[in-house]
Specification:
The chain contains ten helices and 14 strands. By secondary structure, the protein is of the alpha/beta class. Strand 5, helix 6 and strand 6 (193-196) form a beta-alpha-beta unit.
């Protein structure tokens, strides 16, 4: 009995639940106490893909085939579905700059022109320095931007969303192996980043205690793990000197397999071995991620590593269809829910619109602050 208990405790430690369970419990209490908004709620749904055709160093032929699969398969799958604004599902391809190949970025530019997604920046870096990281980011923005990717400020400066390739944003791992730069948040902001989409990272050790929120990092932003301290984003407060943190769902949920019911950790990962289901979608929505003061706009950001063959087969096939059938029926009836497919950039724009006090149809604010990338025209 004691041995079994110790094994279970060790299992929970290995999953790093102690890093976030307290924050999760507080968030659930807040949700239970929050008043239910009147009228239909709007569901903003984004898929943020750590999109790596070069995953596990394949041959050039295999990597090219992965890109082709998405170029052909995503419009075929996504073209069958529409949200309340008449938009198809829209994929956010967070592309790792270190895997650059011109043809791949041209293929993504074509998908962007056709309204099926946009490209943002994904980056793996190890034992890094601020000087080297800044140079790498600016170089990758330049080479990817030449294909027409990334939004632009009026002065031509590129703006981008970011996902940390090793989860350890701002050097939040136990050592510097998977990052190395404590002051990553101000460096990202300086180079044009508007929002971070890395989290949740559970069960990785880098998962912190702020969960199921859109929030501003606070305090000394140059310190290690600066994003682990923050203030919930609320209507009337727009901070112009830092990036916004946009999190996806993280929860404990019951799942049934035959006659057995078990507890699972739900962190919004779309995987071939764990494809989307109606129960999973409900769990994501139930986390009620929103801007404080605008509870009728609910944000759901899920993620995947969609380029490898098994993941692509699921996302472009049965798993993708299951996901979008559920979203376009259960969450787009016009009475209880109104669905809006968004890219990472559009989700940020809508969040900023909420912060500025905008109301009504959030789909009207897709391009509120940051305009579409040049290749979209």
């Amino acid at each position: 009995m004691i041995g079994t208990l110790q094994a279970k405790i060790q299992y929970l430690k290995n999953k790093n639940l102690h890093n976030w369970l307290g924050g999760y419990a507080r968030q659930r209490i807040e949700n239970a106490r929050a008043p239910r908004p009147l009228g239909p709620r709007h569901l903003l749904f984004a898929v943020c893909d750590h999109w790596e055709p070069g995953w596990e160093n394949p041959t050039p032929e295999v990597a090219d085939a992965r890109v082709t699969a998405w170029s052909k398969g995503y419009p075929e799958m996504a073209g069958a579905y529409r949200d309340a604004d008449g938009r198809n599902p829209r994929h956010s391809f967070f592309f790792p700059g270190e895997q650059y190949a011109p043809g791949w970025l041209d293929a993504l530019a074509d998908l962007t022109r056709r309204g099926f997604g946009e490209v943002e920046l994904h980056l793996h870096h190890h034992n890094d320095t601020e000087e080297n990281l800044r140079a790498d980011i600016l170089r990758y923005l330049d080479i990817l931007g030449k294909h027409g990717h990334f939004s632009r400020d009026p002065d031509g400066r590129m703006r981008y969303g970011f996902i940390h390739g090793n989860w350890c944003l701002a050097n939040s791992g136990r050592d510097s192996r998977n990052c190395g730069v404590d002051a990553e948040l101000p460096l990202l902001f300086e180079t044009g980043c508007y929002a971070d989409y890395t989290f949740p990272s559970a069960p990785d050790e880098s998962q912190h205690s702020i969960v199921n929120q859109i929030y501003w990092p606070t305090g000394n932003l140059a310190r290690r793990s600066a994003h682990a301290v923050g203030a919930r984003a609320k209507v009337g407060e727009v901070l112009e000197d830092r990036i916004l943190m946009i999190e996806g769902p993280l929860a404990l949920a019951l799942t049934r397999r035959g006659s057995r019911v078990r507890m699972r950790m739900e962190y919004g990962a779309l995987q071939a071995i764990d494809p989307p289901t109606p129960d999973r979608v409900k769990t994501w929505v139930d986390q009620n991620i929103h801007i404080e003061g605008r509870p009728e706009w609910v944000f759901v950001k899920v993620y995947t590593h969609g380029a490898p063959e098994d993941q692509a087969a699921s996302l472009l096939g049965a798993g993708g269809h299951e996901l979008h059938r559920e979203l376009t029926t259960r969450y787009n009836d016009g009475k209880e829910w109104v669905l809006h497919y968004v890219t990472a950039r559009e989700m940020y724009n809508i969040a900023i619109a909420a912060l500025e006090g905008k109301t009504g149809n959030p789909g009207d604010y897709r391009d509120h602050r940051l305009k579409p990338p040049p290749c979209a025209s």
